[in-house]
Amino acid sequence: MSTAPQQSIAFDDVFPVAQGLLEAESDPIANMANLSALLYEALPDVNWVGFYIMRDAELVLGPFQGRLACTRIPVGRGVCGVAAQSHSVQRVADVHQFDGHIACDGATESEIVIPIIVNGAVYGVLDIDSPRKDRFSEDDQQKLVALVKLLEAVLLAL
Asked: Superkingdom of this entry's organism (predicted)?
C-alpha cells in the first residue's frame, strides 16, 4: 500500500503555510505544484494529491504527487468530472460504490475532490485519494475548501 511519507507538517498547519506560498507567487502551475507537495506531506493515509485543470471542456492532469495518473477526464465522468460538472465537493467514502469511478490507482479506496471556481467557471479541481476507506472527514473537507478558496483568490487576481 502506497502512502505519503512521514509527515513533518501537521494538517492543521497547512493553511498558514499555503497562505505564505500563495502570497509569494502568482504563477498558477507553481502554486498548484507546491500545494500538492504540501498536502501530500501533511495528510496521513493519502496516495495521491493533485490538480486537474480545465482545458477545452475536459480536465487535464496538472501538478501532482503520487503514482502515475489519468491524463484526461471528461466533465461528468468519475469523481473529478462530477465535481467539475456540479461545481460541488465530492467526498466519497468508498470509490467502489461511486457509479462511474475512474480507477487510476487500484489502491485507492476513498477520494475527495474540490472544484476550483474562478469567475463562476470551473478552473480545475483539487483531487486527493486515499488507500483507506472513509478517510476524509467533514473537518478535512472544510479545511480543504478553505485552502482552495485561497488558491481561487490568487487565480482571480491574474
From this structure: Bacteria
How many structural domains are present in the chain? 1
**CATH at 63:** 3.30.450.40
Q: Is the pTM of this model over 0.90?
A: yes
CA distances from 155 to 4, 86, 99 (A): 27, 20, 32
Closest CA to 5 of 49, 51, 35, 58: 49
User: Can you state the angle between helices 14-24 and 138-156, rounded to 10 degrees?
Assistant: 10
pLDDT digits (tens, 9 = 90+) for 49-105: 999 999 999 999 999 999 999 999 999 999 999 999 999 999 999 999 998 888 777
State the cell numbers at 109.
479506496
Domain that holds residue 91: 11-156
Name the amino acid, one letter, at 146. Answer: A
Q: Which amino acid is at 3?
A: T
CB under 8 Å to 69, separation ≥6 — which residues?
Answer: 48, 50, 61, 104, 105
How far apart, in Å, are the Cα atoms of 90 and each of 1, 20, 93, 98, 127?
A: 23, 27, 10, 10, 9
- Asked if residue 1 is part of any domain, the answer here is no
